[in-house]
Design a protein that fits this description.
single chain; 332 residues; alpha/beta; seven-stranded parallel sheet; globular
Length: 332
Amino acid sequence: MKYLVTGGAGYVGSVVTAHLLEAGHEVTVLDDLSTGFRAGVPAGATFIEGRIQDAARYLDATYDGVLHFAAFSQVGESVIDPDKYWRNNVGGTVDLLGAMRDTGVRRLVFSSTAATYGEPTANPLTEDLPTAPTSPYGASKLAVDHMITGECAAHGLAAVSLRYFNVAGAYGSCGERHDPESHLIPLVLQVTQGRREAISVYGEDYPTPDGSCVRDYIHVADLAEAHLLAVTAAEPGKHLILNLGNGNGFSVREVIDTARKVTGHPIPEIAAPRRAGDPAVLVASAARATAALGWNPTRTDLAAIIGDAWRFAQRDRGNNGTSGGSSRTEGE
């Protein structure tokens, strides 16, 4: 099969590309490198430096489907510059869907996010919870989900949206290179590398076992396997929306303590006030994904997840940015 992977030079997109290639598929990566890295594109993929708004230039009827990761994903930035997110995440996907319709490419897997749910009304998060995003980033992803639903109903698109929060770990030469970095595990590892002095813990009085926020971390390779299952499970005229997670939550302090054990570094931490909009617990239910795709995450051990991220960070030191400082984690 032949697939176009938009945003395939980014973290999740590159790992999915690697899995597609290993499965024997032909893959073209379309990425403008605004947040991705050319070095992240796995060997064997055809690379096109371009925008999703220009997908019509590159997509043709020889493709069997599209896996769509191209999006801006910084929550804080989206609040400051929402127009950037509407133009790229939403406007770019409008153009991509149009190109798919015009060329007859009728299969899509979309990298959505559990940020579409906003402040959770229950844990674990299930697909039937209300969607009420609290940031333009989450709202842009929800808007795309609505667009895909309409495309499926009106034009027979076969589509699956996968919603996830905390992606972690690495796969071979593919790992996190965000700049600026906002994800907890790579930020913690930057402390071990001497690239920041300490890690901030935002809030110590949450109703959790150790007072810090609890999040559901999913290994990026488990996530990639779900995308490969989804692209074959998609059915014409149907839009399937599935949550992905490992079903277990780990607190911020558990992540820090585990990283200390994995790396052998002390990792100083700084207590900081709670941030507005940070729920105490976010854990995803993947029961529907298990039923629909036959997917079950197997890399659920936190030490193993951090160990993979640590090995990648040591190999790739110098390619990541050093700015940021948040322990908030979102998908992509």
